[in-house]
Write a structure and sequence with these properties.
The protein is mostly helical. The chain contains 15 helices and no strands. Helix 7 crosses helix 9, helix 9 packs antiparallel against helix 13 and helix 14 packs antiparallel against helix 15.
């Protein structure tokens, strides 16, 4: 066989390997759709059905009820604080890890992944042991009338902890793949650190940064375990939307529980749409850069 025929034969074998018979493809697609229908579409539809089953009036009344509004407000406050802080931390950590070599780099990467390996309930318990009344800092905090556990600060801290890997973990591989040649060239040309970041680094990571912020926001609004431990479940004060849903469901107030749950489902759907849009824009930018 000639030298030209060998690559052609290998290419044909590669094409055949990815072209399964029609029945195999249809079976796999059918299994995927059946799985999505059973575990995603049916539960999602049932949430909205149960929320609206007693009418739009009951649905709206459940959402504008004072405790529900307080839960919505607290959820938005926690996300509004956690997401910007995690964006700053994620960019700084990713830049340090991707662009520099230093002692403790592997340790920093491990610590970033910590919330993925630790149960949210355990992380909430750690905050209780540190800031609770019987905790390490509890007596000092009580003496100075500073309340963290069973208050908004504790909820914000727990939310920050469980969400801080998302932005960093999205940016680290992206910045490592891009390398540091452009930043080094800018530094040689006399650009300052802020100019390098704002005009070179940030435009290159903007879609990855937005992608990570969207995922971070989704997790912040839907977090249950860690927030449940530090909140105290005080109605109208320290309940977020997931906690409010649990309380309503335990009280057999199913219409109100599903009404608030439908808001979380809508937030999830909006997150998926934004995630898809950002992914498509990022892919388009990559194609344009490749053509250049």
């Amino acid at each position: 066989m000639s030298a030209v025929a060998l690559p052609l034969a290998a290419a044909r074998r590669g094409v055949r390997a990815t072209q399964e018979p029609a029945w195999v493809r249809l079976t796999l697609i059918g299994l995927a759709l059946a799985f999505l229908t059973l575990f995603l579409f049916v539960p999602l539809i049932s949430v909205f059905y149960e929320a609206l089953r007693k009418g739009v009036g009951v649905y709206l009344a459940s959402i504008v009820e004072p405790d529900a509004l307080s839960a919505i407000k607290l959820t938005l406050i926690a996300a509004a604080i956690a997401v910007p802080l995690n964006v700053v931390f994620g960019v700084a950590a990713a830049w340090a890890i991707a662009k520099f070599e230093f002692r403790g780099k592997n340790l920093l990467i491990t610590l970033i992944d910590l919330p993925f390996s630790v149960s949210p309930v355990v992380s909430g318990l750690i905050y209780v042991l540190i800031f609770g009344l019987q905790g390490w800092l509890g007596p000092w905090l009580a003496e100075h009338d500073i309340k963290i556990i069973f208050a908004v600060p504790g909820i914000v801290l727990a939310t920050i902890f469980v969400t801080f890997p998302f932005v960093a973990r999205e940016l680290i591989p992206l910045m490592q793949a891009q390398g540091s040649e452009e930043e080094e060239a800018s530094a040689v040309l006399g650009a300052s650190g802020w100019q390098i970041f704002s005009r070179v680094t940030l435009p290159n990571i903007k879609w990855g940064l937005l992608y990570g912020a969207i995922l971070c926001n989704a997790r912040a609004m839907g977090e249950f375990g860690a927030v449940s431990v530090v909140s105290g479940h005080i109605r109208g004060s320290t309940n977020t939307m997931p906690l409010h849903v649990e309380i309503l469901y335990n009280e057999y107030n199913f219409a109100a529980a599903f009404a608030v749950a439908s808001l979380l489902a809508l937030l999830a759907l909006v997150t998926l749409v934004l995630k898809s849009v950002v992914g498509a824009r990022a892919a388009t930018d990559r194609e344009q850069d490749t053509k250049r």
